[in-house]
Amino acid sequence: MLCAGAGSAHRGASVSTAADTTGAADPADAAVPDAGPPATGGAVRVRGARRTFAADLAPVRALRGVDLDVEPGEFVALMGPSGCGKSTLLNVVAGLDAVDDGTVEVAGERIDGRDEDWLARFRRTHVGIVFQFFNLLDGVSALDNIVLPAMLHGLRRRAAESRARDLLDLLGLGDRTEQVPAVLSGGQRQRLAIARALANEPTLLLADEPTGALDTEGGLEVLELFRRLHAGGQTIVMVTHSPDVAAGASRVVRMRDGRIVPE
Ligand SMILES: Nc1ncnc2c1ncn2[C@@H]1O[C@H](COP(=O)(O)OP(=O)(O)OP(=O)(O)O)[C@@H](O)[C@H]1O
Ligand SMILES: [Mg+2]
């Protein structure tokens, strides 16, 4: 079911389905500051990213000039001490937070300086996000946890269901479609969250400590799934504190005090 596919430079691993949630984002929609060097074709290209948060005592400089490149098909583990800026960097790449300075390019498009509507469309088209605590809908079935967000994104119920069933099969949850998250194990819940993140065939799968809330077995389950997705061509950036989890990635990038540690 997984296919790396020709042209996977800008689309990740996919499940075959005719469904498509959105049209392509239009880069001409919003003014972007001076584009600088032309797009490289990389999956992620961050240059000189700075992000400072206001705080009571003194401003917190979460990103202090970050450069990051991720090539299509790479599986990058982002590591570093608590508070060093990992989640901030992930959010910036996801288009959930904006840099104060610097440039952010994803799938060949500049995303810094865009407005909220553009970013929402960009995320729908290009980004799948997995969080530490799953963020699932408690009262509805595994199937509807994927179908409902997909419908919010404009997919018809039938297409959304067909894709959701494919994804649940792919992620080993094919016999759990009608169960609610509460009766699933932690590893199964996180796999469901990953299925939901893959519903839009994202160019880039971003995960912030996806095994952080799981026991060893659940963590291994989820790591194995990421490895399979990577083998199928999916580009992944995953924040983790676990050296065992990071060992499953194709490259480890370390951060400290808002900067990438040189290799
Ligand atoms: N919205 C916010 N408002 C104020 N400060 C913030 C905000 N988000 C992050 N910070 C601060 O920015 C710094 C970096 O935070 P970030 O969440 O990126 O760290 P992290 O590396 O993900 O840490 P952890 O491993 O604990 O998750 C921290 O000092 C944090 O307190
Ligand atoms: Mg974090």
From TrEMBL:
Q: Tell me the segments the record calls region Disordered.
A: 13-43
* CC terms in the record's Gene Ontology section: membrane protein complex; plasma membrane
CDD domains listed in its UniProt record:
ABC_MJ0796_LolCDE_FtsE (cd03255)
Record-linked SMART domains: AAA
Enumerate the GO terms in the molecular function aspect.
Answer: ATP binding; ATP hydrolysis activity; transmembrane transporter activity
InterPro entries listed in its UniProt record? AAA+_ATPase (IPR003593), ABC_transporter-like_ATP-bd (IPR003439), ABC_transporter-like_CS (IPR017871), ABC_transpr_LolD-like (IPR015854), MacB-like_ATP-bd (IPR017911), P-loop_NTPase (IPR027417)
Which residues lie in Low complexity bias regions? 17-43
Which stretches make up the ABC transporter domain?
A: 44-263
Q: Which UniProt keywords apply?
A: ATP-binding, Nucleotide-binding, Transport
Return the protein name. Answer: ABC transporter ATP-binding protein
Name the source organism: Pseudonocardia broussonetiae
